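Bench log, entry 3. Co-assembly request; chain sequences pasted below exactly as received.
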Amino acid sequence: MAKKNIDWENLGFGYIKTDKRYVSNYTNGAWDEGALIDDDMITMSECACVLQYSQTIFEGLKAYTTEKGQIVIFRPDLNGDRLASSAKRMEMPVFPVDRFVDSIIETVKANADYVPPYGTGATLYVRPYMFGINPVIGVKPADDFQYRVFTTPVGPYFKGGVKPLTIKVSDFDRAAPHGTGNIKAGLNYAMSLHAIVTAHNEGFAENMYLDAATRSKVEETGGANFLFVTKDNKVVTPKSDSILPSITRRSLMYVAKEYLGLEVEEREVHFDEVKDFAECGLCGTAAVISPVGKIVDHGNEICFPSGMEKMGPVTQKLYDTLTGIQMGRLEAPEGWIKVVE
Ligand SMILES: *Cc1c(COP(=O)(O)O)cnc(C)c1O
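Structure output for the full assembly:
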């Protein structure tokens, strides 16, 4: 085995085909045994349910090399649980969580040469997903499904240092009450594309979505949960049934309490109180935490005291602690780190 000749530090976040992917098919009411395959192309009916009615769900996690040189993945069982809850909401069969974790490990192992070395900031992004594959024209769930896992090496999220983001309060809604905001379904992203392109065209990095019913409470961005720090160092994250339960956010809240001894609160956050917070960050697998320096609400600017040059002090501590745990520099809570090889 030899690492691929890739300029790890300068990798972007784009798709690069790797050697192997995992596939399991669900037909006649059962999953087959699954296999690693070479073919990156999928052939399906022109009328496949996923193409007509978007019956598709996904997960995202990373494999990386620790300080000691082990390849590991972070809390994959939680991704498996979340894929299961997405499947149930979308009338899809559950792919058993133990098989999910095994499929991730197998796929990462088979592409170990693409796992970036320690210290490069790059990682191997792992994308498990499932979709309805048989022809469906009258609206109903598919009968047959495909579950796949592919990997792609991705570069450090912040090249040349972390820069706080400027985001806008969106005029669009991300998720309806009692809708699908709390599951990781492609449909949530399809309808967010226009909103993110609009925000980018206006010079913003991301959208802050408010709750669709009252437009008075903070929900999340298109792909990351919010974390706020109060002026007296309390860590606050919005609670809502239409937020996607980020594994990074849940891990950071644990770290805040158990490693840093901070007070933590998961509760409704009114947009009106955002101006009073000291720090703001976005949490997700991709960046762990992206600091937010400024939020613009129809011309009104909220500028956090942490500024536009660096992360706020509490955000930085949270970031350092969680990445320290992930990279093996700090002891991890039981079960958080799964060694691939
Ligand atoms: C995936 C995702 C997140 C981040 O979740 P992690 O498990 O931390 O990667 C947050 N919000 C949305 C809408 C997402 O799809």
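The first helix runs from residue 49 to 53. The mean pLDDT is 96.
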